[in-house]
Predict the 3D structure of the following.
Amino acid sequence: MNNHTLCCDRTAMSDYLYQYPPLIEGRWLKRYKRFFVDVELASGEVITAHCPNTGPMTGVSTVGSPVYVSKSDNPNRKLAYTLEMIEVYDNQPTWVGVNTGMPNQITRQALLQKLIPELGEYDDIRLEVPYGQDKKSRIDFLLTGAAQPIYVEVKNTTWAQSDLVLFPDTVTTRGQKHLQELMALLPAAKPVMLYFINRADCPYFAPGDSADPAYGKLFREAIDRGVQILPCRFEVSPVGVCYLGLAELKL
C-alpha cells in the first residue's frame, strides 16, 4: 500500500522525543461528525478510528491518503483505534501528525531535555497553571528559575502552502484570546507562543491571514509588544517524533 521510507530512519532511537507503539497501516476513506474517520487497513478490513483533531485539517485529509492508526487494548473505549498520522505529498512524501493529544506531551520532553535554547534558562516546569486576570485560563507550561517566569502556550500546526506552514487554518477565537492573554503578561513575565509544526517539509512559518485575519493582526501586535514566537519544526514518522529546530518566520 505504501512504500515510503520512514522519514526518521537515519535517526538513532535515542534522538526521538516520542516513540510510537506498533502502529497499523491503512488508507483514509472518509471523515464524519469531526471525531470519526473510516480507514481501510492493509488487511482490507474497514475500521472506524477516533480523530483527535477537531479542526478542519486543511490540506491533510485527502481520500486515499496513507495513514497510521494506533489500537488501544482498553475494553471500555468506544473506538479502539486512534488516527495518528497522514501522509501528504505537498513538497515530498511527508508524514503529518494529526493526534492533537501529542504536541504538549512531546513539547514537555523537549523542555525537559532543554532542546529549545531560544527559551532561555529555567529550572522547573509546571503544566496547566491558571493565569490571566480571572485565572480561568491555563497556560500549557510555566517555566521558572530565571529572573522572569516563562509562560509557554503550544499550538499544533499542520496547514501548509508549498514550503510555508500556517496557523490557524480556520477562525479561532480561542487562539485570539491566548495571544491577548500572553500580551497581558508583559512586562512582568516572558510570554512565548510555541507553534508545534507537526510535519518536516516546511522550513517557513507564517500566520494564516486568509483563514483568520483577526488572528494575523493580533499575531503581529504580539510580536511588536514583545511576545516571543517560536515556530518549532518536528519530524514525524511511524517510528517516532524528533525535533528539527526553528522554522523561519515570514511576515
